[in-house]
Records
---
Amino acid sequence: MIKNFAFLVAVSLISSQVEAAEGLTEAQLGQVLFFDPVFSVNGTMSCATCHEPDQGFTDHRLTRANGFVSLGDDGHALGSRNTPMAAYASTSPDFHFDEALKEYVGGQFWDGRANSLADQALGPPLNPVEMGLSNEEQVVKKLQQNPLYHATFTRLYGANVFTNQPLKEGAVAPAYAAFGKALQAFESTAAFSSYDSKYDRFLKGEYQLTVLEDLGRTLFFSNNNVNCNSCHRLKTEDSEKEPFTNHQYRNIGVPSNPNLLALGHLKADFIDHGLLENPAVTDPKYDGKFKNPSLRNVAVTAPYMHNGVFKNLRTVVEFYDHYNNPKRSINPETGKPWRTPEVPGTVDKEDLKAHALSERKIDALVAFMKTLTDKRYEPLLKAQEQAAAK
């Protein structure tokens, strides 16, 4: 898998030191940075720690957080949101307000507060509950002290990339900005967005959908059934390289996660205001809206929603259906009625309108979403299904 390959690349490059830097591309530099734990305060966390390539670029570590949120480099700090999948993140445009749509679109993180992948990459090293460094100067110093990084940054980004000249207020040091650019270059490669799932192979005539998968596909793209594609489609039906998100923001009435709150690091009355947590957004009508995630690899990247409140993909579909189906009143994971929305006042009720689903139609939608699993993660899906059958 890519993780082991990256370590081999890093070892090879470091053994050659400056000589190796002569041929290193920006994406290759980003690859080495992605797996290097030196950019965390205790040297135990890299980007790959929370975005494990072997696990769909999500955090599947077994910690006291139970997968709801991620554990920081210090061994005890916890975040407040489920770690987003890094795969296919490069499909998102920069964060902006679309005047035609009258919607915020794009960006990174659940609230779009990072305009681009390069901007997003600058956040975790300085986040006290993630990699925990105090300031960007610490990152730049680590880059300067490593002959490989120093030579490569100088060649790729210019002789003045490590300048110590005073910066304007709010500006990012050139070397730190380049750090983000390199990671963005790596995250924009096919290693993150392979487009080789069964669905992609179906579009190329290389895979025949099962009857159930094809029913799910029909339902998914139908405006008269479940309305999935209103938020999880960017292009036209069955388009190549579809990211399965429109990169917009919605409040679908997700409840708070009591198991997350029980971890004790958040106040009992904690409310995540989603898009309203983005400094660029002030209108209260965006309260509780979160970015529509890509459905690529959704079957192998549980738990779901911004707070990890749902464990199973089928539960998510049943949650959507409960808005339109009086018979769907019980959360199958808890055996209790669905809890109220975390932010009830701004739920996008119109987008949630759809026909009630039968059990077979729910099975079909889940089956179709499983076809969006990248080929390299199909063994994970198979193992998951085998475990469920026991």
Note: The chain has a mean pLDDT of 93.
---
Amino acid sequence: MTSADWLWASPEASTAIASRDLSTILRAFRRINGMSQVALAELLGYDKSYVSMLETGRRAINDVGTRRHIAARLSLPAHVLGVTDVDDAEYRAMLQFGDSTVRLAEIARQAGRAVEAVNELWPLVARLEARAAEGQMERDSLALLARARVALGVSLGTVLPEERLSSAARWTGLAVEIAARLDDSNFYAHALRMHGNELRKAGHPGAAVARLDHSLQLSNDPADRGSALAFICRAAGELGDAERFDTALSDYRNLLDKNTGSGLLFQPFTLREIALRGLMSTGRIMRACSLVHRQAGRPPAPQWYIIERVTTGEILVESRNVEGAVDAFTDAIDSAERHRLPHQIQRAVRASVKAGLVDVADAGRAALARNQSRLSAR
């Protein structure tokens, strides 16, 4: 059975699924996954000529069992192929437990199991998206859809490679559109915060700052404000805006001094890594070098340990500690492969190439290939 990731990796996939047309879905599935008709036929357990007829619309399938089989092999919710109705008992049960699904997926992501989070979230999002497309969304369902969109986007932003991170920003952006209409300022701030960070990761730090500033204005809870400031530090660093970075970092540090750290972003470990990367990004490498050996507690999650290892490796390269840099990058690559975090491997490879660490870069590329192979085999 294939992974659910393909469903949300591109607008083409979403459009194909929304059409509920088997021919369109099969063709899109093959294009997105780079599969031949022979490979698709093997996945479905059919003859290639039969798959060809399905793709061209020369053969229609009316049998419920066959449609259910195809849906299962493509990791599609059965209603997309007309097997069930969105108003059935299954849909109502999914709504009943929807909040729990989102919470459990968030716990999985924060524990370093982001692929698991995606695969938990996508059936919920698929059913809610289908309901929304038919104009049958009551307020509670709409709020659940927004929460699920944010969680899905952030989880995708953790597991997708860099060249596909715009998909994560797209899903968090769709959540912001709903959040703006829900009269819930706390959730609106959360959606803006997550969207801002996914925009930054997708290469749009300027747009990210605008969303993050808005989130900061709406946030009252110290952990929420700290999270917004952490992301602002990231974006300001990538923009090379030292003044904005220093102001946000100072506000973050003062807030943390007065409040107990909580969450992934409002922690001493996170503060130190953000300071390291921001100082490096704004050209103050000597200050970064003086900070790199200072410890600041335990990482709040596996991905933050990996993020810190890459950043530390980059700074050690600048301080001409090549052996230490090799250890840091190698540790990051091994951990990122174990937790299936391809864009962190890509960060380590890019930094290794820049530093001329050919063997480390080659090891990273091999890890990326293994990660993609495992994803394709699902």
Note: The chain has a mean pLDDT of 89.
---
Amino acid sequence: MAASSPTLAAVPAPPTRGTAPAPRPRGRLLALDGLRLVAALMVCLYHYTGRGGTVSASWHTHPARLFPVLSRAAVYGNLGVQFFFVISGFVICMSSWGRTLGDFFRSRVARLYPAYWVALVLVTAASLALPAVVRPVRLDEFLVNLTMLQQPMGATRVLGVCWTLWAEVRFYVLFALLVVLRGVTYRRVVLFAAVWTTAAVLCRSSGDELLNQVVMPDYAPFFVGGLALYLIHRFGGDPLAWGIVAMSWLLAQSEATRGLWGPHPHRDPYVVILVVTAAFAAVAAVALDWTRRASWPWLATAGALTYPFYLVHEHLGWFVIRVLHRGLGLPAWPTLAVTVAGMLLLAWLLHRFVERPLGTRLKRALKERKLGSRSPRRGF
């Protein structure tokens, strides 16, 4: 989810062999930064006003009673996760071009973990201060959450949104081992997209849980669609790339409708299809350079805030809502506005004082370790 936001400046492509299209020069895609924040705000509004459960306890009633109009739209906000996955496919393909597997690994680790670790500490501390919102986690649960592998371990998640990070990590591993390891090229990305799509379709009838965890049929079409859209952005549109996008959209709308309407009939299946289509169309507009005029500098900041905002907004936002609305009696709409603004401010602080300094140091440390390991004095 989500979680991927490397520098959005295109990496110059190495010469390609065969009949692969020639790359076109590209600049920073600020519009993509803006789309990432839009997706995060969609998820945020879903968590605050589009669902029941814990947030209802914070509001002291179901959000639909306080926000009757907004809530009807916010119930579709969880599709912002799928929107993230399309963007992630685009960005990961772009950021890995011309880079080694080691570079790819270091950039992902340095990008994902620093803000994630601090978010874990903040949410755990808040759960101890106000356990009525989220129960405090045990020490063993907190420690395994530091790995970001708590979901396959069957441990309790400290951050509710981190299930999307597990999907992102699996995508990174698949793409790294099958494409980045040998060097990213047009042909290899197309082959990866074709094989993954086929495997995802076949996985539906296999009934094999391990295969399902690896192939991710629920999310594969969104990642693959993003990969193909980046090929269109880099090399120009061609029938093969557009065919992959079309196939991915057809499968994606089916997966989204099955997952988000079937178990939840209060949603309209046609709206689900419309939102999925809008997500693909928005990234396609970036791929086709239709958003070239969206060059406002604040979009870069918006993109930088997305990941830390996504990490902290859910549980910490519920805490703030409970304190402001139930504790201090602030009306619903001001509470919502202050909570969203507060989470954005916290995200900026995390970006400024955690991600930027610690991410850079972590990447440098991993790089130095690689170089140092060649020294005979280290013995390995």
Note: The chain is about 70% helix and 0% strand.
